[in-house]
Amino acid sequence: MHKIQVADRAFGIFLENENINKRISLISIQLNVDYEDRCPLFIGVLNGSFMFMSDLLKEVSISCEVAFIKVSSYEGTESTGAIKETFGLPQDLHNRDIIIVEDIVDTGFTLEHILAQVHAQKPASVKVCSLLLKPESLKKEIPELEYVGFEIPNEFVVGYGLDYNGLGRNLKDIYRVID
Ligand code: XMP
Ligand code: MG
Question: Which fold is adopted by the domain 18-169?
Answer without folding.
Answer: Rossmann fold (3.40.50)
